[in-house]
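Notes continue from the previous slide.

Worked example: a multi-chain complex. Inputs as given:
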Amino acid sequence: MIVQVLLVLAALGALVYFVRLAHNVHIRASKRIAFFAFIVVNIYAVLRPDDMTWTAQQIGVGRGTDLVVYLLVVAFVFGMLNTYLRQREISNHLTDLARTVALRDAELTNRDRGLVTEPLVTEPLVTEPQSSQTRSSKTQ
Amino acid sequence: MANDDTWVIIPVYNEVTVIAQVVADLHTTFRNIVCVDDGSTDGSAAQIATTAAHLVRHPINLGQGAALQTGLCYALARPGGRFFVTFDADGQHRVADAGRMVDAARSGFADVVLGSRFLDQHEGRPHRVPLLKRITLGLVVALSPVARKMHLTDAHNGLRVFNRAVAGQLRIRMNGMAHASELVSLLARSSWTVRELPVTIRYTEYSTSKGQPLINGINILFDLAVRDQR
């Protein structure tokens, strides 16, 4: 059936898309477009259920409701992956922050304990490659 | 002391009963030790403060990979470090093995020296790795094409030595236990020479109870599969 091909492609697309591509402006924009398109389709589906059924039959799904459920599953997976990646990005920032705090505290602690005698280091101790900064994208 | 140019980095998470002894043992050979307390809740930090080790405290628990990276940052900021050793806090490694690996690195044996508990058998020494552990770790190596390509026998050994050039370029992004596999793939993509030396692991009841359960392999594989390309 056509729908099976479409759904499997969508699922694989979601996976490849999120795992392989770095986030940038285009992807952020396309995600928002997809989000609005999804809402529009949903409103349309509520207002004209018969049209959904017709579309569903064209691509080999029995009822319009089924088609909406399938679309929902794909959208859900997209959303979950999106949230997961966003959450991990925040956790990366949190790690950098905690590390900076820990290293700064350690300078003072170990100086008090007499283990560090050299003058205070003034440049930042954590130097992250620039690429991790450019990745900081807002997701929806 | 002979090893003044060496820093030992110990990630510590809730190891209050053993950490002071581990540091004391190390201090007979290495002067520069930094313990990274990864947000322990059992008073490990206070215990470390009584030792001769430098203390760095994560304000929150971040994971072993993050603790290693923090320790590296701290040690690199101190002047004079040429070799950087990672050492587990639970007392499973032998100080003599670490000393041997640093000597090897100093002699130009390799840029990165990794400890392997599986090389023992080739030298006819008794094989002390428990069977289940052997199967688990063998599986990790078998599932990791990079480890196979590099002819590594033990991808998840906590005892490692890096020279300064390598340590300065390491950026461990996997905060949890996946950092071991992350390191291996990082080394594979680099031009550094990586060699293994046989080490003995002391499987005490304590260290076994704190080891990685087999099921955590699934978490590690997931983390590595969905990590983004940096």
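Summary box: The longest strand of chain B covers residues 6-12. The mean pLDDT of chain B is 84.
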